[in-house]
Amino acid sequence: MKINHITILVSDRLKAADFYSNLLEMEVVERGKSRWIKIGDQYLHLAQDSGDPIKDSFYHFCVSINNLSDYLKRIIAKKVEVYDIDDNMQKTDINENLDREKRQFFINDQDGNMIELIDENNNFFK
């Protein structure tokens, strides 16, 4: 088994697709009026008109990235705010050590949806 897709709530499907494609370098897939973001061989479904985006919580999804340090440098250059969280799940500033092993980072999309980023070699579940 594997996850096929996850749905997140967004206020504007086109703006969300732009964020994920242009700033986060992910592929947008259109099916009718639906917008999907391809991540590996799974999908993120951008749902508008299904309720309000979820904010101010630890609700999130995680994406593993090949060569996370270089990816972070690219998205930081595009003005995407990258941060850490503390033991109470509160946002804290990022430090300069982007290469520390088993480290995770967090960003928010334009609607406040939290996204965790880890290196593909992070062996958290192993």
What does the model show?
The protein has 126 residues and is an alpha/beta fold. The chain has a single domain, classed as 2,3-Dihydroxybiphenyl 1,2-Dioxygenase, domain 1, CATH 3.10.180. Helices cover 17% and strands 34% of the residues. It has 2 helices and 9 strands, in the order E-H-E-E-E-E-H-E-E-E-E. The strands form 3 sheets. The chain has a 4-stranded mixed beta sheet, with helices on one face. Strand 6 and strand 7 form a beta hairpin. The longest helix is centred in the N-terminal third of the chain and has 11 residues. The radius of gyration is 14 Å and the shape is globular. The two termini are 18 Å apart. The mean pLDDT is 88.
Task: Note the topology.
Layout: E1 5-9, H1 13-23, E2 27-31, E3 34-39, E4 42-47, E5 60-65, H2 68-77, E6 84-85, E7 91-92, E8 104-108, E9 114-119
Parallel strand pairs: 1-4, 5-9
Antiparallel strand pairs: 2-3, 3-4, 6-7, 8-9
CATH topology: 2,3-Dihydroxybiphenyl 1,2-Dioxygenase, domain 1
Report the strand count: 9
Task: Compute the separation of the termini in Å.
Answer: 18 Å
In CATH, the homologous superfamily goes by the name: 2,3-Dihydroxybiphenyl 1,2-Dioxygenase, domain 1
Shape: globular
**Which range does the strand content fall in?**
25-35%
The assigned CATH architecture is: Roll
Number of domains: 1
Strand order of the largest sheet: 1-4-3-2
Multimerization state:
single chain
| CATH classification, class level | Alpha Beta
